[in-house]
């Protein structure tokens, strides 16, 4: 009998410190108008010293488990670019803090596409019979890897976490995830990257420059690649699901930039007003962006059971992906 992963719980978590455009503009050659016009962002949240990615993941995960009505899962997948440590993975720490016992726990690293890769991992585990319930979390403290002097990146990103609980179910029931499309292109590794990191290369006379430990992005090239790859991936899963573009009630794309989201909607032929957006309130939260957008839209009552939802993302690697989902009745956490 075919098994499918069904969305059964949802939760989000933001650190308490709110950072406005005006606060950043005070130390950068920028302004609130400049940031809003180019990104659509007016504020973001940043973790204070001592707040770890695992802490935000626990906040989102606990809310998702409460929303699902059952605190037990067989596995946990954490998507993050900013783990607590390079080694070991952050997921076992999160599992321990959540009281998940000896559940399987591992990290996925695909930058802004990380949540979709993690979602596919959890769905695949359920489909293969390896788990009945899986908690999937996207969590980031991206502010820790930003160059505070770089206007092009420091105004874009924020910290946060979002999570969903998946349970085994029937492919035809409301809440079941549809087919996935995932891709990568390592030729674009330098477009979205932290140049330094890990053990030093053999034969190096000196270490990397201090700025090489910060996140960098070639924005103009990324813009068009993101639109192209997400558009292609979205169309692929629509075809596999048997949906027409006009059947889609909500597009939930990675919240990278409001211009990218609007251009993507145009690219696939979907009215812009069907694109869910929370980037103005939280900024780009990388792997946390899609589940946070879902959590905020659900809390606002914008998602109705039976709505057809298209998820898609693009991130460093380069990586991209998409899937479909018919929205279920989910308790608000």
Automatic annotation (TrEMBL):
GO terms for cellular component: cytoplasm. Residues 107-186 form the Beta-ketoacyl-[acyl-carrier-protein] synthase III N-terminal domain. GO terms for biological process: fatty acid biosynthetic process; secondary metabolite biosynthetic process. It catalyses: malonyl-[ACP] + acetyl-CoA + H(+) = 3-oxobutanoyl-[ACP] + CO2 + CoA. Residues 255-259 are annotated as: ACP-binding. Keywords: Acyltransferase, Cytoplasm, Fatty acid biosynthesis, Fatty acid metabolism, Lipid biosynthesis, Lipid metabolism, Multifunctional enzyme, Transferase. Residues 238-327 form the Beta-ketoacyl-[acyl-carrier-protein] synthase III C-terminal domain. One of its GO terms (molecular function) is 3-oxoacyl-[acyl-carrier-protein] synthase activity. InterPro entries: ACP_syn_III_C, ACP_syn_III_N, FabH, Thiolase-like. It is found in: Cytoplasm. Pathway: Lipid metabolism; fatty acid biosynthesis. CDD domains: KAS_III (cd00830). Its main location: cytoplasm. The last Arg residue of the ACP-binding site is essential for the weak association between ACP/AcpP and FabH. Belongs to the thiolase-like superfamily. FabH family. Homodimer. Catalyzes the condensation reaction of fatty acid synthesis by the addition to an acyl acceptor of two carbons from malonyl-ACP. Catalyzes the first condensation reaction which initiates fatty acid synthesis and may therefore play a role in governing the total rate of fatty acid production. Possesses both acetoacetyl-ACP synthase and acetyl transacylase activities. Its substrate specificity determines the biosynthesis of branched-chain and/or straight-chain of fatty acids. This is Beta-ketoacyl-[acyl-carrier-protein] synthase III. It comes from Streptomyces sp. CNQ-617. The gene is marP.
């Amino acid at each position: 009998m075919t098994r499918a992963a069904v969305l059964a719980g949802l939760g989000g978590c933001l650190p308490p410190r709110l950072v406005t455009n005006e606060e950043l503009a005070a130390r950068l050659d920028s302004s609130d108008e400049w940031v809003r016009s180019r990104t659509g962002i007016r504020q973001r949240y940043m973790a204070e010293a001592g707040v770890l990615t695992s802490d935000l993941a626990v906040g989102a995960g606990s809310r998702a488990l409460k929303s699902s009505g059952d605190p037990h899962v067989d596995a946990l997948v954490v998507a993050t670019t900013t783990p607590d440590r390079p080694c070991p993975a952050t997921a076992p720490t999160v599992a321990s803090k959540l009281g998940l016992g000896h559940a399987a726990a591992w990290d996925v690293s695909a930058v802004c596409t990380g949540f979709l890769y993690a979602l596919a991992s959890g769905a695949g585990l359920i489909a293969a019979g390896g788990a009945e319930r899986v908690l999937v979390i996207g969590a980031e403290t991206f502010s820790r890897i930003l160059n505070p002097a770089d206007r092009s990146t420091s105004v874009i990103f924020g910290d946060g976490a979002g999570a969903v609980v998946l349970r085994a179910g029937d492919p035809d029931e409301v809440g079941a995830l549809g087919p996935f499309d995932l891709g990568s292109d390592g030729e674009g590794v330098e477009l979205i990257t932290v140049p330094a990191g890990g053990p030093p290369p053999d034969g190096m006379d000196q270490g990397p420059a201090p700025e090489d430990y910060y996140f960098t992005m070639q924005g103009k090239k990324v813009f068009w690649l993101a639109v192209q790859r997400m558009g292609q991936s979205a169309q692929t899963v629509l075809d596999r699901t048997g949906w027409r573009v006009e059947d889609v009630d909500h597009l939930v794309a990675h919240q990278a930039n409001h211009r990218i989201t609007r251009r993507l909607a145009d690219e696939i032929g979907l009215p812009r007003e069907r694109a869910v957006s929370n980037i103005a309130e939280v900024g780009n939260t990388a792997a946390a962006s899609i589940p946070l957008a879902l959590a905020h839209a659900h809390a606002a009552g914008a998602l109705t059971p039976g709505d057809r939802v298209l998820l898609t993302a693009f991130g460093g690697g380069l990586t991209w992906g998409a899937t479909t989902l018919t929205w279920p009745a989910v308790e608000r956490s």
